[in-house]
Amino acid sequence: QVQLAESGGGLVQAGGSLRLSCVASGSLFSFSTMAWYRQAPGKQRDLVADITSGGGTYHADSVKGRFTISRANAKNTVYLQMNNLKPEDTAVYYCNFLVSGLGDYWGQGTQVTVSS
User: Fold this and answer.
1) What's the angle, vertex CA 25, arms to CA 81 and CA 5, rounded to 5?
2) Coil, helix or strand for 116?
3) Buried b (16+ CB within 10 A) or exposed e, 36-69
4) What is the pLDDT of residues 32-52, one digit of tens each?
């Protein structure tokens, strides 16, 4: 069982920045692919960014150039640096942990609200 604890959400004005953090329990973090998803009210949960165990990254087109995913294996932590936030970034952001053969796990989510 893997537990994920997200933090760093909040209310920010458009153009501002936030950094989300997600700490994973256990000893398999360095083998995992970690991802951030978001879900706005009434919409599906969408992939925002992910990072493989080798450090390869993917960012959705909607956040490319504004958001950056990174990881610190020594701290069992994945980050999402969010700059130049827009009102359309408002959503609950979820951390996801995936290890082949183990399955995937979700955090409880953290609310990000961007005011115009």
Assistant:
1) 45
2) coil
3) bbbeeeeeeeeebbbbebeeeeebeeebeeebbb
4) 999 999 999 999 999 999 999
